[in-house]
Amino acid sequence: MEFVRVEDLVFEYMKTDEGGAPVATRAIDGVSFCVEKGSFTAVIGQNGSGKSTLAKNLNGLLVPTEGKVWIDGLDTTQPENIWNVRQRVAMVFQNPDNQIVSAIVEDDVAFGPENLGIDPAEIRKRVDAALEGVEMGDYKDKAPHLLSGGQKQRIAIAGAIAMQPECIVFDEPTAMLDPRGRSEVLKIALNLNRKGMTVIFITHFMEEAACADHVIVMDGGKLRMEGTPREIFAREEELKALNLDVPAAVQLASQLRARGVDLPDSILTAEELVDALTQPAPAEAAEEVSS
Question: What is the mean pLDDT of residues 113-122?
Fold first, then answer.
């Protein structure tokens, strides 16, 4: 079932030139795609490719200059739909410090539901469940400014979960974190998706994108490629032309093939590469069977 539909999306920022005249800068240029309900979609691209502008168009923070965005059938260009769109789609941004509004962790997580007018008893349940879901239940009485970057990001995610949206858009949530923090945030996103949450994960870490069901590649405000991770990362030369990398396992497998190692083209993860390298050659396997 389709949850997000984007058709011919154009978004322009208005700036002024040196003479003070308004000038339109096109950040998104004719983008179209769909996201299935319950799927995990990764969006990759260089800085300035339009990823974050796209993200903000998916929950009504921005509305199209041209084209349409539908969220669960709701047209985001209609002002009467914005409240319902934002209840369905929550966002987690790159810098957790910009999302924290309270001096106590549990108060911060409760902020969204309180603004929805939720009953206090229900808010208590949501806050506790959200904090447990991101493994931060023991920190509910702590001050957010005393937490690590990864812990702050988990609090921001808990705040989104407490709103009980149908979809969370993660806008480069791991960009400012160390490897451990990145791993923790990705794990939470994957767990939410396994429980049925639609996840749109914007990232410049290719190993994160490799975990998705579907990958969208942005460049210069345009959608350049889309497909499964295996389909996208098999197009290594095209990605390099867009100044994008591939997962380390894909790159190493490609280098080994160039040196004559017989490896399948479908390798995506380190585990798959290890399995392929440790499997016996066909002749050896046949000898083992005959013996």
Answer: 91
Does residue 281 have a pLDDT over 90?
no
Q: Walk me through the domains of the chain, giving residue ranges and CATH numbers.
A: 2-233 (3.40.50.300), 247-291 (no CATH)
Residue 280 pLDDT more than 80?
no
Q: Quick one: pLDDT at residue 142?
A: 94
Summarised one tens digit per residue, pLDDT across range 36-48 is: 999 999 999 999 9
Size of the chain in residues: 291
Contact 54/224 with Cβ under 8 angstroms? Answer: no
Rounded to an integer, what distance in angstroms lies between the CA atom of residue 188 and that of residue 167?
A: 14
Largest CA distance in the chain: 84
- Edge to edge, the sheet with strand 214-219 lists 89-92, 167-171, 198-202, 40-44, 214-219, 222-227
Question: Is the pTM here over 0.85, yes or no?
Answer: yes
Question: Cβ(56)–Cβ(62) under 8 Å?
Answer: yes
What is the C-alpha separation between 116 and 219, in angstroms, rounded? 37
Query: Are 99 and 158 in contact, with CB atoms under 8 Å apart?
Result: no
Average pLDDT over residues 204-219: 96
Q: How far apart are CA 183 and CA 94, in angstroms?
A: 15
Residue 82 tokens, joined: 């914005």
Nearest to 97 by CA among 180, 14, 28, 176: 176
List % helix, strand, coil for the chain (3-state, nearest 5). Answer: 45, 25, 35
Average pLDDT, the chain: 92
Let me know: does 226 contact 213? Beta carbons within 8 Å. no
* Paired strand residues for 43: 202, 216
Q: CA 25, CA 23: separation in Å to the nearest integer?
A: 6
